[in-house]
Specification:
globular, 9 strands, alpha/beta, six-stranded parallel beta sheet, three-stranded mixed beta sheet, 403 residues
Length: 403
Amino acid sequence: MSVFMTTFVVEYHKTYYNNMVNRFILNEVSYFGPGARKELPGVVARLGFKKALVVTDKGLMQFGVAKMVLDVMDEAGIAYEIFDEVKPNPTVTNVKMGIEACKKAGADFIVAIGGGSSMDTAKGIGIVVNNPEFSDIVSLEGVADTKKKSLPIIALPTTAGTAAETTINYVIIDESRQAKMVCVDPNDIPCVAIIDAELMYSLPKGLTAATGMDAMTHAIEGLITKAAWELSDMFEVKAIEMIYKYLPMAVDEPKNPVGRDGMAVAQYVAGMAFSNVGLGVDHGMAHPLSALFDVPHGVACAMLLPTVMRFNMPAAKEKYVDIAKACGVYQAGMTTDEAADAACKAIEELSARVGTNKRLTDLGISEKDIDALADQAIKDVCTPGNPREVTRDDIVALYKQIL
């Protein structure tokens, strides 16, 4: 492990896993509900912003999702320029391009429209614009000692999964190392989040399922991570209950506002907590799948979750009882072991139900690739939060289970 990574893991433990002082950071303001994007002009006027850099991707532009927000801005006469070069797994180069676009536009705030990739890119742009000493981007990895808040970000998620609109984390790929950098910085949290389920109605079935199971991964890992405590548990248990209820509906009935809005809120609730307490080895193993093989983050987390849950069960049985109750599969008289097993089965069945029970070979990944994946996963900043101590050999075995 490098000197940097050793230092970062120590600091990460101090921040998240000591449990002597618990810190909770949330957005200043959030709006919820179908059509909530129409609150945007009032927000901009209240905050006195003049010109936006809209950060999104070409797919959202092409299929008219971004237009749903841009129409609101046009009608209100809000000045903006568009940066739509965001990649599914954003890179250092991607962020640098966005920084130049922001400077050229003379923007004094950012409107991020999209999933985690758009919002993570927006966070990287906003942080560096106001903290130019971190302009190499790579220096943001870990807990960056930025002094100023990001250029203000108004985040409008178009997927129900990452909760990046309410977290203090963002993830950028460093192409030179082919590694995902997890950046943790309270200064990057969007000043306003607008969670409008109407922006999610056109999300394809597969992406709805993958991002939804990503949200379930956040909720479960946030519940059982070493730094979890009463406040975070409250949010994560409710998120698990809501995701278990609403995800199948959102997958099967994409235009149903009940399922879409339920998932939009549920993933936000999960994010409120995991942002403040950390995650575990599922995310530690998912990050290199994206960095080395460009696997979408939600797909990576979803395919790992049932297997990692089984691995962690011995260290988190009491919390698994809470998961069983949240999923409605707990029965009176169950032993702790029986309830924990029921919780695992419920998540396995949910994964199969929504079609996220994929294998590595489905994605073109073979056994010869596992060593490179494990090398990154054991060093990932999420891995130390896992409730069960995990070795590199454990990680290799877990990858092989989903081969």
